[in-house]
Amino acid sequence: MVARGKGILAADESSGTIKKRFDAINVESTEDNRRDYRETLFRTREAMENSISGVILFDETIRQKAKDGTPLVKLIQDAGSIPGIKVDKGAKDLAGAPGEKVTEGLDGLRERLAEYYELGARFAKWRAVIDIAGNDIPSGYCIATNVHALARYAALCQEANIVPIVEPEVLMDGDHDIDRCYDVTEYTLKSLFDELYAQDVALEGTILKPNMVISGKKCPTQASTAEIAEKTVKCFRETVPAALPGIVFLSGGQSDEEATANLNAMNAGHADELPWALSFSYGRALQAAPQKAWAGKAENEPAAQAAFAHRAKMNSLATLGEWSS
Ligand code: 13P
Q1: Is the full-model pTM beyond 0.90?
Q2: If pLDDT is split at 50, 70 and 90, which confidence band does 129 have?
Q3: Four-residue CA torsion sign, 15, 8, 290, 128
Q4: Distance 250 CA to ligand 1 centre (A)
Q5: What is the ipTM of this complex?
Q6: Cα angle 41-45-50, degrees, rounded to a multiple of 5
Q7: Of 109, 115, 144, whose CA–CA distance to 130 is shortest?
Q8: Could you tell me which of 247, 260, 324 has the C-alpha nearest to residue 286?
Q9: By three-state DSSP, how is residue 195 classified?
Q10: 324 Cα to the center of ligand 1, angstroms
Q11: What does the buried/exposed string (b/e) look like for 119-152 if buried means 16 or more CB atoms within 10 Å of the residue's CB?
């Protein structure tokens, strides 16, 4: 999953999220359209073989077949990439905590993991959402309940021989500055690793998918690439044990190029400070360009594949610290 020069394609948009993405390109979100679009990505041999170590799928996709009847999972495997599965059931309102969320999906998870293993999944993802765009949030209660659920999920994955990706996402929505993001990310990661320890999760078989330490989208002073790289690496060195094999970032609403530039700055400027592989698990930052190029038309598939291959290659270079704009 964190092989040199490779990262993960997050193609696990839930039905609601993929509808939003398709609305933006005027494509109806039907089962066939979702299949056609994702098939186009998974058939991009150049990207899949050289830059993409694994693909996170949604429940519908792991069961789908390509137009010629080949399971989509097989397309991924044949390209030498690993199929993974999103297993959480989404962030729901946290009782008694206005504006905060807790991620659900633990009930029946052991049985679902066994089925996903049979379907070919070898890793999984669970996303917790920490919103900090308000005066009194996040609460300690929100972080404690979310990291507790992340650790329960991770322990169940390891029991099922599935590698857990633990994703505590501190959102970049809001006008907070980078230091506020730093503080909340630091607290969240410390809490997460305490809880993984308490629940006996093996860090050697766990991957972290965090946000970068970054300014809120509406913050009037936006931190530079160099500051983002420096503060993100510092924050992780303070909180993430060296036993963890890898950290794969979410893009979280950064532009395609920002997500690449920030990752590159960490790997280029801080290489000797990193005990873990630092790579990507991007959704939007890998897919915005191919979605736009595709626009729901079969004749645009080569253009969509070229756009995907380009972003995958740029991010691959960023994992090596070799990207330039
Ligand atoms: P983004 O890169 O679009 O944030 O998506 C990654 C992801 O999987 C969020 O859970």
Answers
A1: yes
A2: very high
A3: positive
A4: 5
A5: 0.91
A6: 110
A7: 144
A8: 260
A9: helix
A10: 23
A11: ebbbbbbbbbbbbbbeeebbeeebbebbbbbbbb
- Residue 14, Cβ neighbours under 10 Å: how many? 15
Report DSSP letters for 28-48, one per residue: ---HHHHHHHHHHHHT-HHHH
Tokens at 114, concatenated = 């066994």
Structure tokens at 160: 């099922």
Is the CB of residue 275 less than 8 Å from the CB of residue 284? Answer: no
Catalytic residue IDs? 209
Query: CA 267, CA 323: separation in Å to the nearest integer?
Result: 10
Ligand 1 in contact with 6 (CB < 6 A)? no
Q: Ligand 1: does its nearest atom lie under 6 Å from the Cβ of 127? A: yes
The CA distance from 8 to 220, in Å, is 32
User: What Å distances lie between residue 124 and 22, 167, 261, 263, 270, CA to CA?
Assistant: 25, 10, 27, 23, 29
8 A C-beta contact, residue 196 and residue 203:
yes
Question: Contact, 202 vs 187, CB < 8 A?
Answer: no
Confidence of residue 325 (pLDDT cuts 50, 70, 90): confident
Paired tokens of 228: 């983002």
Ligand 1 contacts CB of residue 249 (under 6 A): no
Taking residues 228-239, report their average pLDDT.
98
List pLDDT tens digits, range 261-276: 999 999 999 999 999 9
